[in-house]
Amino acid sequence: MYLLPERLLALACGLLVAASVAATPAQRQVRFEAVDYRVVDVDLARDRLELHWQVDGQALASIDALRQWGQQDGRELVFATNAGIYDREFRPLGLYIEDGRTLRPLNTARGVARAGNFSIQPNGVFYVDAQERAGVVPTAAWRERGIDARLATQSGPMLVVDGAINPAFDEASDSLKWRSGVCAKTPQQVVFAVSVAPVTFHAFARLFRDAFGCRDALYLDGTLSRIWTRDGGYAGAAPMMVKPYVGMFAVFADDGK
Question: Is the pTM of this model over 0.85?
Answer without folding.
Answer: yes
